[in-house]
Fold each of these.
Amino acid sequence: MSESVKRALITGITGQDGSYLAEHLLALGYKVHGIVRRVAFEREGTRLSRIAHLTDLVTLHSGSLESYASLYKIVQDVQPDEVYHLGAQSFVSYSFDDPFSTFQSNINGTHFLLEAVRLIVPQCRFYFAGSSEMFGQVTESPQTESTKFHPRSPYGISKVTGFDLSRNYREAYGMFVCSGILFNHESPRRGLEFVTRKITWHVAQIKQGKKTQLALGNLDALRDWGFAGDFVIAMHCMLQQSQPDDYVIATGETHTVREFCELAFSHVGLNYEDYVVVDPKFYRPAEVHLLLGDTTKARQTLGWKPQVAFRELVHMMVDHDLAALSD
Ligand code: NAP
Ligand code: GDD
C-alpha cells in the first residue's frame, strides 16, 4: 500500500452515519476500518445490513465501547490517521429507560477511545459526534457554537460530557480533536425508532393497506432536519483543517413533527389527520421543544453547506420505503 493512503477508523460503522461516512471515505481513497460488536458477525444479515455493499471494501474489527482493552488493541492494530467516533446509544427516548448503559457507552466509551488514541497515536485526528441535543432547553435561537448547553435527557448529558472530554484532550494534550454539533439528520437508512423513519415507514405501510394507524407522541416538537449523506461530508472536512475546532452542522430550517407528517402523507395522496393518533406513551419525561442551527461558521470555515432540502428529504424517505415494500 502506498505511504500516502490514509487510514480511517470508524466506530459505529454499522449505523446510519457510519455507512455514509465509510462510502465517502472509500470514494476519497481512504483505507477504512470499522469497529463492530461481535454479535454483528453472528447476525450479518441484520446487524451489517447498512454496510452489506461495503464489507469487501472495509476491514471490520470486533470490539465494544464498554471495553477499553478492545479499543486499545484495535487502535494499536490499525494505527489510524483519523478516528471518527460515531458509536453511541443514540436513541434519546431509550436513554430515559436505561441512563446507566447510555452513560457507559457514550461517556466511558468516548473516554476509552480518546485515551487509547492519546497513548498510541497522539498525532491522529479525532472526530467526536456531538449533538444538538446538548442545547436541550435552548437559551437562544438559532443555536451557534457558543450557545449554552442545557441538556434535557441522559443522552444529552452523555453528549455534553463527551464534548467536554474531547475539548479537554485537545486543550490538555494538544491533540487534533474536533466535535461536530450535528442537528438531526435522516435518510432511508435511519433506524425505525426515530420519528422520521417511523413516519415514512408507516406511510408506506398505510398506502399499501398493511396498516391503518400511526401512533406518535409530541407532534409540535421542532427539529432542524437534514440529510445524513450531506452531514458526513462535514465530519471529514473538520479533520482536514489546519486547526481543530467545533462546528454546528444543520440546515438552518426548522419544522414540526406535524409538518413532517403532512408532507409524508400528502406525497402519497393521503391526509395525515386520517391516520395519525397521539399516544402519550411516546412523550418524553423532558422534551427538547425547538432546535434550529446557525451554520455560519461551517459555511465560512469548512465551505460546507447542505444539498438536500426538507421536502426532498421527506420524499426520498417515503419513496424508498414504498419501493422496499414492493420488492
Ligand atoms: P445509529 O444509526 O444509532 O448508529 C449507532 C452506532 O453505534 C451503531 O453502529 C451501533 O452499533 C454503534 N454502537 C452503539 N453502542 C455501541 C457499543 N456499546 N459498542 C460499539 N458500538 C456501539 O446512529 P447515527 O444516527 O448513525 O449517529 C451516529 C452518531 O452521531 C451517534 O453518536 C449519535 O449519537 C450522533 N448523532 C446523530 C445525529 C442524527 O441525527 N443522526 C445527530 C447528532 C449526533 P450496532 O449496529 O451494533 O447497534
Ligand atoms: N422517536 C419518536 N417516536 N419521536 C417522536 C415520536 C415518536 O413516536 N412522536 C413524536 N416524537 C418527537 C420526539 O419527542 C422528538 O421531539 C422528535 O420527535 C424527534 O425525535 P427522534 O426522531 O427520536 O430524534 P431526537 O431529536 O430525539 O434525537 C435525534 O437527533 C439528535 C440530534 O438532535 C437522534 O438522532 C440523536 O442521536 C441526535 O443526537
Amino acid sequence: MKRVILPGSTGPDGRPATLGVMGGGQLGRMFVQAAQAMGYFTAVLDPDPTSPAGLVAHYHVQCGYLDEQGLAQLMQRCAAITTEFENVPAQALLSLGAHRPVSPGADAVAVCQHRAAEKAQFGRAGVACAPYAVIETDADLAAVDAALLPGILKTSTLGYDGKGQVRVATRDELAAAWASLKGVPCVLEKRLPLAAEVSVIVARDAHGHMVQFPLQRNWHRDGILAVTEVPARGLPDGIAARALDAAHAIAASMDYVGVLCVEFFVLDDGALVANEMAPRPHNSGHYTIDACDQSQFDLQVRTTAGLPLVAPRLHSPAVMLNLLGDLWFDADGRERTPPWADVLALPGVHLHLYGKASPRRGRKMGHLTVTAADADAARDVAQQAAARLGLPLLPAL
Ligand code: ATP
Ligand code: MG
C-alpha cells in the first residue's frame, strides 16, 4: 500500500494528517517530535500511561499491542503507521498493514525479532556474521561444534542491552547457561576478538531508493551503548564503504521500507561482520538530531508518510553520551538531579531527556550530543561533560 500523506493535509474524514507509532519509548517520542515539527498530528499505542512518547503525542491509545479495539482506534486515527521497537508482535503490524501503509512491514520486523532468522537474512544478503549454532533442543546442544567456544549464548527473541546473554567457555558452562535461560530457543555465537564496534543507519523508500548516514563508531559498557562518535575514526581503511554496502544489501534483500540500523563488529584482523539489526531508528543514531541536516527520525517520518528521501548531510562532528539512570544517584545512593547547568555551560552541548519519571540503574533516561567544528574538539568537550557528570572517561580511539 503506497500512499503519500502530505504534512498539514486533511484526510477524507476531515481529520488532520496523523502519523501513528507502535510503542511509546524514547524512540517513539523522538519520532513524534520530528513528525510534529513538520505539522503532522501524531498517535502512539503503548500500554504505559506515562510512556515517553505517549506524553507528547496528540493521541495516546493506551492498550496492549495485540488489543483489537486499540489497534482499530489507532488505524482510525492514522493515515500511516510505523514502529519504534522490534518486539511489537508482527501480527499487530500485519493486521494494521491490511488497512494502512505500515513501514517497516511485518515480515521485516519478524526477521529482526529473531536472532536466527536475522542471521539467515544476513546470509541471504551475502553479509558475514559471527559463526553460530541454533540451540532449540537437547540434541542441538549436544551437537554444538567445539569451535564455537568460548562463545556467547543469546536468547533468540526479546534480548536487548545485553539482557538474555550468557558468556560461556566450556560445554558444561553452555549447558548450565541454557538451563539458566530456561531452555528457550537460543543462538550460540562464537566470541570474536573485537577491535571496534560500528553501525550504519539507512533509510529506504517503497521505490527502493536508499540513503544513509555516515558510519558510526560505538562503545558499550555492561552491554549497553555508552558512546557514539561520528565521523568514525581509528578504523582500518575501507570499513565505512564495506559497512554501507552491507547495510544496503541487507535492506534490499528484505525489500525494506523505513529506517534500518545494522550493527557490525570490526575484528582484530580487519574483517567486518554483522552483529544484529534494528528495524527502526537506533540509539547510535541519536546524534543525527543535532549533527545532521536530516535526523534519523526525520527520515522515519518521510518513509512512513511516503515523502521523498534525500541524502542526509553531517554538518558537525559529534560525540553522543548515553545518560543512564545511574547518574540520578549520588555516591551514597541518594537520588539527585544530575548537574545539568554545569554540563550546559559547555559549548555545543545538546541535552535530550526522555521524560521518564523514575530513574533506575541501567535505564536510558536521555542522551547528550556534543557538536563542534572538528572531531577533536567534540571529543574534548564530551570528555569534560563526562567528567562533570561523573561518567567514566571516553574510551581511547
Ligand atoms: P542491543 O541493545 O544492541 O540490542 P543486545 O542485547 O541485542 O544489544 P548484542 O548486540 O548481541 O546485544 O551484544 C551486546 C554487546 O556484546 C555487543 O555490542 C558486543 O560488545 C558484545 N558481543 C556480542 N556478541 C559478541 C560476539 N560474538 N563476540 C564478541 N563480543 C560480542
Ligand atoms: Mg546490539
